[in-house]
Specification:
By secondary structure, this protein is of the alpha+beta class. 70% of the residues lie in helices and 10% in strands. It has helices spanning 4-112, 118-156, 163-236, 240-243, 300-304; strands at 247-250, 256-260, 272-276, 282-286, 312-316, 319-324, 327-330. The strands form two sheets. The protein has a four-stranded antiparallel beta sheet, covered by helices on one side. A three-stranded antiparallel beta sheet has the order 5-6-7, with no helix packed on it.
Length: 331
């Protein structure tokens, strides 16, 4: 059977391993908790940065939409006017050429032909000139309208500035990277914490088994000691009412001294005394509060003629019992 001391040492070692595992687990748990708080803080910063980026994006989109609306209207005016200008320029060029032709015809008629026809061609040339000038004036107005529309568009919808959105996006990307890093660190520490918890659970179970084994052995030892005590008390003939406080002392000479019935405790004042030899035979018996003396020896031969004549054969707690001249004497 395994020695109780070995089991106790095993229990102490298992307890120490459990305490070490618990310390590692609590440290890992604290680190994981701190990392979780950091991860939450990083997540909040990420959310705030994302909201800011979204606001800037929406602002940029709204600006872009307004930009498109304004410049689309400008484009409509420009395209319509340009189409009209092209048509008018074609007409103005034709009127200009017709004017030149009429003036040249009037000049030719005046110099070489019918001078009366010259004024007619000159008048027709002036009509073409008036129509040309009128067309050019309309062209100029249309060009001015396009120019004014462009100036208005530039004022109302300048080119969209995306710098605020780009800056907000950069902040978000940084916050995202920080959160992912904090999340990875938390997962790592959480895995360590869980591993430490498993180690602690294993150590706790091992300590529980070692403690249970020690307690079982302790109960066995206590039971064996109780059986031995009961056996000794049975041999000594101790009453059950006195057994609880009875005191058993084993001497180096092989005898067993049993004290019982004393005041307050088994070997208290007025106690009884029984002596068992090495074989378990009762050699001395004195009831509680009885007188000391050779009459308490159970063996008549030992009392008067035994081999211990004139020598000390035992101690009655704090009294030496001797024989002298064949008579028992309480020294």
């Amino acid at each position: 059977m395994i020695c109780s001391d070995i089991l106790k040492q095993e229990e102490k070692a298992a307890f120490q391993r459990k305490q070490t595992a618990w310390a590692s687990f609590t440290d890992a748990r604290e680190q994981a908790s701190t990392a979780h708080e950091a991860m939450d803080a990083a997540w909040n910063e990420r959310c705030q940065a994302r909201e800011e980026m979204n606001r800037e994006f929406e602002s940029m989109q709204a600006s872009s939409e307004h930009y498109r609306e304004v410049w689309d209207e400008y484009g409509r005016i420009r395209d319509y006017n340009n189409s009209r200008i092209d048509s008018l320029r074609y007409e103005a060029d034709a009127e200009h050429q017709a004017m030149i032709d009429c003036f040249e015809r009037a000049n030719s008629e005046y110099e070489y032909g019918d001078k009366t026809a010259a004024p007619m061609y000159a008048a027709e040339g002036r009509d073409h000139k008036d129509r040309r000038d009128s067309l050019n004036a309309e062209i100029s107005a249309l060009c001015q309208e396009v120019k004014a529309a462009r100036q208005a568009a530039e004022y109302q919808a300048p080119k969209t500035d995306s710098s605020a959105f780009r800056a907000a996006k950069a902040v978000f990307e940084q916050a995202k990277a920080s959160h992912e890093s904090a999340q990875a660190e938390f997962k790592r520490l959480k895995a360590t914490r869980d591993s430490c918890k498993e180690t602690f659970n294993t150590a706790q179970a091992e300590h529980a088994r070692a403690k249970e084994a020690f307690q079982r052995r302790l109960e066995q030892v206590k039971s064996a000691k109780q059986r031995e005590r009961d056996k000794t008390l049975d041999k000594a003939g101790i009453r059950f009412s006195d057994r609880k406080n009875a005191k058993i002392v084993k001497k180096s000479d092989g005898t067993t001294q049993v004290y019982s019935g004393g005041i307050g405790q088994g070997d208290g004042a007025g106690h009884g005394h029984v002596v068992l030899d090495s074989t378990g035979r009762k050699t001395y018996e004195r009831e509680a509060f009885a007188e000391h003396g050779s009459q308490n020896y159970t063996d008549e031969k030992t009392r008067w003629d035994g081999p211990h004549h004139g020598v000390i054969i035992g101690k009655d707690h704090d009294h030496e019992v001797t024989f002298s001249q064949g008579m028992g004497k309480n020294a």
